[in-house]
Amino acid sequence: MEVKTSLLDNMIGVGDMVLLEPLSEDSFLENLKKRFDHSEIYTYIGSVVISMNPYRSLPIYTPDKVEEYRNRNFYELSPHIYALADEAYRSLRDQDKDQCILITGESGAGKTEASKLVMSYVAAVCGKGQEVNKVKEQLLQSNPVLEAFGNAKTVRNDNSSRFGKYMDIEFDFKGDPLGGVISNYLLEKSRVVKQPRGERNFHVFYQLLSGASDDTLKKLRLHRDVSKYNYLSLDSAVVSGLDDAANFRTVRNAMQIVGFMEDEVQSVLQLVAAVLKLGNIEFKPESRCNGTDESRIKDKNDLKEMCELLGIEQSVLERAFSYRTVEAKLEKVSTTLNVAQAYYARDALAKNLYSRLFTWLVTRINESIKAQTKTRHKVMGVLDIYGFEIFEDNSFEQFIINYCNEKLQQIFIELTLREEQEEYVREGIEWTNIEYFNNAVICDLIENNKNGILAMLDEECLRPGTVTDETFLDKLNTVCAEHQHFESRLSKNSKFLTDHSLPHNCFRIQHYAGKVLYRVEGFMDKNNDLLYRDLSQAMYKANHSLIKQLFPEGNPAKVNLKRPPTAGFQFRASVSTLMKNLQTKNPNYIRCIKPNDKKAPHIFTESLIRHQVRYLGLMENVRVRRAGYAFRQTYEPCLERYKMLCKRTWPHWRGRAREGVEVLMADLQVPAEEFSYGRSKIFIRNPRTLFFLEERRRQCLQDLATLIQKIYRGWKCRSHFLLLKKSQIVVAAWYRRYAQQKKYQRIKSATTVVQSYARGWQARKLLRELKYQKRCEEAATTIAAYWHGTQARMELRRLKQEARSKHAVTVIWAYWQGTKVRREYRKFFRAHAGKKIYDFTIQRIMQKYFLGLRNNLPSMSPIDKNWPARTYLFLDGAHAELRRIFHLWRCKKYRSQFTEERKAVYEEKLEASEIFKDKKALYPSSVSQPFKGDYLEISKNPKYQKLNNAVDEKVLLADVVNKINRANGKGTARIFLPTKKSVVLADQKTGQVKASVPLPDLTSVSVSTQSDGFFALKLKEGSASAVKGDFLLSSEHLIEIITKLHRIGATATDREQLSIDISDEFLVQFKQDKVCVKFVQGAPKNGNSVSCKRKNNRLLEVSVPATA
Questions:
Q1: Where does this protein hold ATP (predicted)?
Q2: By three-state DSSP, how is residue 1031 classified?
Q3: CA distance linking residue 258 with residue 931, whole number of Å
Q4: Which of 458, 763, 848, 1058 could form an S-S bond across to 1049 if both were Cys, CB 3.0 to 4.6 Å?
């Protein structure tokens, strides 16, 4: 049986604050400190997880830990963020409940890391597979991209998220991720133009300057020196522990995995460089004849480089920085800008440019990671948003951040109470109303459509006349003076008139987390967030495709005189949408706490943590959870844990689990008012009752351990004695056996020795007799052999003597005949005998040479380079000349066999060699294949008779090709018919003409360098044939098709020659979109040698097997 642990086992402090006794703020902090000192950074408040940032790596996120918490009950193991993630995932997968995980806390508390841990856990426990792994990788790799563009170094955190992020991860019915949707809230775009002391701008600026190659920086007109850019702070340019160069490579890789095209990445980097260049533009005053001051740009070099990057005319942007045009219904007024207004316009453009780029990045990532199927999905939302902020100087940003946290606190209390009430009703326990602070009155103070602070702020921004931050404060003092949570020095409420802690230009709101003082300065400008229309129109005139998308309001054809919505209005609408989304899901909460401001481990700053506990409302959360029953547990684990406390339930209870728990509680005499029985759980009201049960269990476990030790020791001693007794019997038996075996071996050995001596004597006697008999036989044989030898030698000598006599007679006769012949020959010998002998010899040599050459001639093939070897040195020249004449003769014989059709085939083969040799891996295999041309026999096949009649010109080639579909990378069979004037594509089954492209509309053909048969027919832009885009086709006769198309273009005089582009990556126009076709080498899949697969909306990847 599996032994399950519990949250209560080996507990350091109290693992669940609901069980804390006594409950106070001091005991709450003391329990947090005790657990933090023992590296226990997670603590529960019911189902809420408190996470303390350890500022160091802990070995609690390993794959073994993932498996440990997988499919386990929430309270079964010690507190961990994995327990909450597993509970949420299993509820989504098994109960079909949409989930949301709300992560809150101040900057540096570890919210971003907590969201990464949740996503990594879900990725680890969900299904596996190529598509699933791809989706998981894209979801995880979206984080580095958003962190680079949305995170920055602050005094509190080296990687602080300066925007709110909500991600909906979509799952199928099996619990496998299908995709996701990201929503971003309130990017801190003011950081682009100004950063507080000790802080940095967004990471991407420093990563670009540190990690980009020299060539990339040169193209972007940038330098590595951070000090050259006014928008980048110098005192914190380098952060310890952050490698900007390595992070830049990580971001580039992540963008590629998410699905960004290379031209999109370059466009994004160009806009980042443009923001840096924009910050270097400075202005100087110039007096006009009418006495007014006008701004002029000091040094136009940075403006020029920025305009070159974005494709804007320099004069257009320069005028936009010097003049402002105000349009009414029937008139247009142009005014000059002074230096201060020009700097404001510059900074407003930089902030809007970066903010809209960030929004575009989020939208582009959503396009890549969104679920492709349209069926209903299960959804898990992860909210990583700013915590409650109370600074020395609080402005508009802190106001709307705290407003968002008020809404989250409101929904947190409502959902927590609703969850409690639903569980009580589900278990059949009477629900008692719980008193708690309802912050709806504070939310109404801020968001009321008539008298809310945001509504009044929007009203002031739209009011004609002189509008300032002071007039806005006066309006607040008039409308909100009597509100119990609003305080102002200038309000009608007299009790704040002498409050010197409340400056005149400030107002104070009593939030659920405490009072916050807001300085009204800057509220109007930040809420307006205006960008002059001249700048929007200048940006729209850029030749940069991405700029046009970011500034659609600059289109002169769509001028909208209506004032754009304010920042407060947009944020209130976003928060309202977020709240509606969260209310449809089952909530899970992670409250992140920062232990100290030094970002150092092992330091617990009590005052800082007390402040965070208050504004996170943790004590309020504990009180809500303890208002009814502090602890609840299902009957089965409760009985399993405490059954040893009652003799009737120990060691095994045979009945129902609830009946066993009732017997147990009755035996322990626990007061009836301290617990209640639900349908599937027991509810314990006071933590003291639970600790009483735990103490009794601990004592009982000690007694059981003593009993188990006693029984075990007795069993061990008995077992040892029985083992000794058994061993003694076995040893004695083995010894007696050994002694008898030794005695038998001695007797056997003695008998063997006696036998061997007797047998040896008999054998030696027999051997002596055999040797004597053998010697007698050998003596007779030797005497006979000597006699026969003597007779043979005598006969040999006689025969030799006769032979010598006959040979002597023959020799004498031969000498005599030779002498007679020599005497006769001397009569006829003359002086020219030597020359005749020489000529005769030469003639014989030549005759022999030619006969040998005739018999060893090589084959008639012109490519055969063999030739017989030269036998005599003086024939060297003749030998080479004969070889040349023979080669010319056989070439002439070979050419005489050619027909005109065969000559044309060889010319096409030669042209194919010039186009593809050493450029495409498919070419060598096509050399031996003849160019057949009409593979379908279209003129003879009655199936294609109608198609043959529809084509007017002579068909140069007829073959079946596959037309590649952009949506899924699959091919559709088409008949490919090129003629001298057009290219026709027809349906293979019906023979119906699907497309006819005139050859003048065909500009180029693109193929890869691999051994595939893919090729793209690129059409002239603006032509009638290009309406549906280019054609991406594949064929087994690629080399022949491209060669014939090239020959048709080469012979035509009325059009340019067809261009052949050989590259492993090229663009294909599909209707309005350009799709990149990328060829990679890989192993064949599903038996197919070449496979085409759609990676995302703008990438088709063709996998080609690697050639040996």
A1: 105-112
A2: strand
A3: 44
A4: 1058
Q: Report the alpha-carbon distance of residue 335 to residue 199 in Å, rounded.
A: 37
According to the annotation, is 311 in a ligand binding site? no
Phi/psi class of residue 360: alpha, beta or left (left: φ > 0; alpha: ψ in -120 to 50)? alpha
Question: Is 157 among the residues known to form the active site?
Answer: yes
pLDDT cut 70: percent of the chain above it: 93
Choosing from 51, 115, 142, 157, the catalytic residue is 157
Q: Is 236 one of the annotated binding-site residues? A: no
Residue 161: active-site member: yes
Q: What is the DSSP letter of 202?
A: B
Residues β-bridged to residue 553:
none
Active site residue 267: no
Whether 387 is catalytic is yes
* Cα–Cα distance for residue pair 138/1097, rounded to 1 Å: 14
In 3D, which of 1076, 1103, 930 has the Cα closest to residue 1012? 1103
By the 8 A CB rule, do 311 and 543 touch? yes
For residue 389, indicate whether it is catalytic: yes
Is there a binding annotation on residue 105?
yes
Let me know: does 99 contact 586? Beta carbons within 8 Å.
yes
For residue 1054, pLDDT over 70 is answered with no
The pairing of strands 164-171 and 993-998 is: unpaired
pLDDT at 381 over 70: yes
Reply yes or no on whether the pLDDT at 788 is more than 90.
no
Distance of alpha carbon 937 from alpha carbon 958, whole angstroms: 8
**Is the Cβ–Cβ distance between 203 and 143 less than 8 Å?**
no
Query: How confident is the model at residue 830, as a pLDDT?
Result: 55
Task: For the full predicted model, state whether its pTM sits above 0.85.
Answer: no
Which of 47, 51, 115, 161 is an active site residue?
A: 161
Kind of pairing between the strands at 378-384 and 99-104 = parallel
The residues near 805 (Cβ < 8 Å, ≥ 6 apart) are none
Whether 160 is catalytic is yes
Catalytic site residue 536? Answer: no
pLDDT digits (tens, 9 = 90+) for 301-346: 888 888 988 888 888 888 888 888 776 555 677 788 888 888 888 8
Burial zone of 885 (CB within 10 Å; 0-12 exposed, 13-18 middle, 19+ buried): exposed
Catalytic residue among 107, 233, 355, 586: 107
Show the DSSP H helices in 21-160 as ranges. Answer: 25-37, 63-69, 81-95, 111-125, 130-150
In words, the CATH class of domain 403-526 is mainly alpha
Q: Which of 360, 792, 419 is nearest to 624 (CA)?
A: 419
CA dihedral of residues 171, 140, 48, 693 (deg, nearest 10): 90
Give dist(CA 394, CA 51) in Å, integer: 26
| pLDDT (mean) for 34-41 | 91
| 106 is annotated as contributing to ligand binding | yes
Instruction: Read off the pLDDT of residues 609-630 as tens digits, 9 standing for 90 and up.
Output: 988 888 777 887 787 777 667 6
112 labelled ligand-binding: yes
- Residue 561: pLDDT band with limits 50, 70, 90: low
Which of 160, 190, 352, 405 is an active site residue?
160
The residue among 513, 557, 582, 572 whose CA lies nearest residue 102 is 582
Q: Domain map of the chain by residue range?
A: 403-526, 631-697, 706-748, 856-896, 900-1105
Any catalytic annotation for residue 355? no
Summarised one tens digit per residue, pLDDT across range 869-916 is 887 788 888 888 888 888 888 888 887 777 777 777 777 888 888 888
Residue 241 annotated as part of some ligand binding site: no
900-1105 sits in which CATH class? mainly beta
pLDDT at 1104 over 60: yes
Active-site pick, 108, 211, 259, 1049:
108
Query: What is the CATH code for 631-697?
Result: 3.30.70.1590
Whether 900-1105 and 631-697 are alike in CATH topology: the answer is no
Distance CA 150, CA 112 (A): 12
pLDDT value at position 360? Answer: 92
**Catalytic-labelled residue, pool 389, 423, 427, 662:** 389
Residues 380 and 88 sit within 8 Å (Cβ to Cβ): yes
Catalytic residue among 387, 568, 617, 1049: 387
